[in-house]
Amino acid sequence: MNTRFILSFETLVVKLGSQSPLSRPDVSAALLQPYDLLYDSAVQAFYNSDYEKVVRDMEGALSSHREVRRTKVRCRLRCQDQFPFDEAFSDLRFFDVVLRRAACMNRCIEEKLGTQSRHKVSEDVVQDFNRRIPYNFLQMAYQKLNQPDKAAAAAHTYFQANPEHVEMGQDLEQYKDLKGIKEEHFVDQEARPHQCFFTAAGKLYDKGDYDGAIASFEEALVEYYKADEECRALCQGPQKFEDHDHLRYRYSLHELVSDHFTQVLHCEHECVRYLATRPGRLSPMENYLPLHYDYLQFAYFKVDKLEEALQCALTYLLFHEGEEFMTDNVDYYRGVLGHDGKPQEVRTRSGLERRGWFEDFASSQYYSGICVGGPLLYDSVLLVQNSAALNGRQRVLLDHVISEEECAELRHLAHTVTLAGDGYKGRMSPHTPNERFEGATVLKTLQYGYEGRVPMKSARLFYDVSERARRIVESYFQLNSTLHFSYTHLVCRTAITGQQDHRNDLSHPIHADNCLLDPDANECWKEPPAYTYRDYSALLYINGDFDGGEFIFTEMDAKTVTASVKPKCGRMVGFSSGGENPHGVKAVTSGQRCAVALWFTLDPLYRELERLQADEVIHILDTQSLWDQSLTINPKDEL
C-alpha cells in the first residue's frame, strides 16, 4: 500500500464513520451540555456572586464530565467485543477490524452525546477537573448558601487531591466544629472504589480481622480490574502526537496506524501507575496490585483456608517469579495440602483473566510468623526482641552493642563536639520547642581530634562504633549486598527547664525514614522531600539517665503504638526504613538523651560523602601510624 495520507489516524476514522448512514447521530441525543461550557459558566457566576447558578452549573459540569467518560468506556468496550482481532489474520483483515472498530466507536459515542467535537475541551480544563478545582468553587458557593453539610463534602473532596492546600485544611477543621456537621458529611465524592476497599482491608488486616480483610481485599481486586479495563478503554480514542508536525504529517496507512497504537500502548501502560496513585500524590504505591495477593495469602492462612492461600501465593509469583519468601510459602502450602494449585482467576467483562501479586513482608516466613535473623557477629551482642516480639516487620532490638566504658567515652565526646542545630539546618528545636537538639558528624569529630580539641582515640571510637552497627544491621537482616552509610549523627536532645509542665507533644513526631507518612490514606509516599534512597535505620543509645524519651513504633495511623523501647547504654534498635515501620520518640521531660543515629542505603550512589572523607582520614591514620605528633601527612586536607 503506497498511498500517502495527510489526515491523522483519528481524523481518518471519524470521516470513515461519518460516511455511513448508520453513523449519523440522533439529533435528540445531543442534549448533554459540554462540561467545559458549564464549568466556564459556573466560574463566571461565582465572580458575579450568583452562588445558586454556581452550584447548578458546577454540579452540571461534574455530571456531564462523568457521563462523557462513562459513554466512551461503554462504547469502546462494546465495539471491541463486536469487532475482535482474530488469532490469525492478514494485514488486510487487521486494518479492516481497526477501521470498523473506530467507526463503531464514533457512531456509538455520537448517538449518546451528539457531535464529538462539542465535547472536546482544552488541556487546562482537563487539568482543572483532574485537580478537582470545581469542588473548591462548590464548597465556597455552598458556604455562601448556608449549606455547610454540602460545603464540607465539597471541601473534603477537594482536599483529598490537594493536601498541601493550607487554607482548605483550616476550612475543614472549622466545618468539623459546626453544629450539625457529622463525620459522614466528609465524603470523597470522587473516591476510587478499588482504593477505598484496599484501605479498608488494610485496616481490618492490622486489627487481626482476617475474614473481614479477605472480603475487602477480594472486593478491591474486583474493582481494580474493572477500573483497569475502563482505563484501557479510554486509551482507545484519539492520541496526542507531540513529536509530530501535523502540517507535515504524511505517512502511509501502516505508519499511521503503527504510530497510533504505539501511543495507545503507552497510555495503557500508564494505567498501572494511575490506578496505584492516590489523588494528590506524585508517585504510585509500590507494588500495589501484587500487594493484594501478599496480604490475601497470609489472611487465608490465618483462617485455615490453605487452598485459597496457595492460589494467592502462586498468583503473587506471576509478578515476582522466584521470590524466595513466597516460594517457601508455596512449598509449605503444597506440603500441607498434598497437591499443587493454580493462580487465582477473576471474571471480568471480557471473560476469565488471571490476576497476581507482591512483597511487603520480604524477609518473613509467613507460616511460622517469625523473621529469623542472621548472625550478630559479636559475642557480646544480645538479641532482646525480634520482629515478632516488636509486633512488626524488619525490626530488631539488641543489647550490649557497646560497653559501659565506650558509652561513657561517647557521652564525654558528645558534650564537647555537638553543636545546637547541627544536622537540622541550624534549628536548635526542630521538632519541639520544649527540647534542644545538638549533633555532630563523624568527619567533624575527626577534625576536632586532629585539632586536639578532643582525644583522637574518642573520635576514632565514634567512627568504629558506627561501623560496628552497620555490620550488625547488614548481617542480621541477611542483606545480599553491601549496606552503605547514608548519614551518621551523634545527637543529643535535652529537656528545657521550665517548659515540661503539661506537655502533650513528642520529642520526634511519628514518621518513616524514606517516605512521607500519610495516616489518613494509610500509606507512605516514597517521593521527595523524603530520603527515598534510605533502606535501613538504626539508633544506638549511649545513656538512659533521663526521663521519657522512649522510642516507639506505631501503626500507619501514627497513633496506635505497637512497641516501645526504653533507651539505655549499649542498646540498639534497627529496622527497615519504609512505611512498614512508622516510629517516633516520646517527650524527654528531664535530662539529656544521647544516641548515635544511623541511616543506611543499598545504593552506592547515595553513600554519605562525609563518611567517604572520614574513611580516607582513617586510612591515612592506619597506614602512616600517625598517632604521635610527628605528622608527615596532614589529614586535615581530607577534612
TrEMBL record:
PANTHER family: LEPRECAN 1, PROLYL 3-HYDROXYLASE 2. Residues 488-602 form the Fe2OG dioxygenase domain. Keywords: Dioxygenase, Endoplasmic reticulum, Glycoprotein, Iron, Metal-binding, Oxidoreductase, Repeat, Signal, TPR repeat, Vitamin C. Its cofactor is L-ascorbate; Fe cation. GO terms for molecular function: iron ion binding; L-ascorbic acid binding; procollagen-proline 3-dioxygenase activity. GO terms for biological process: collagen metabolic process. Its EC number is 1.14.11.7. It comes from Mastacembelus armatus. One of its GO terms (cellular component) is endoplasmic reticulum. Belongs to the leprecan family. It comes from the Eukaryota. It holds the Pfam family 2OG-FeII_Oxy_3. This is procollagen-proline 3-dioxygenase.
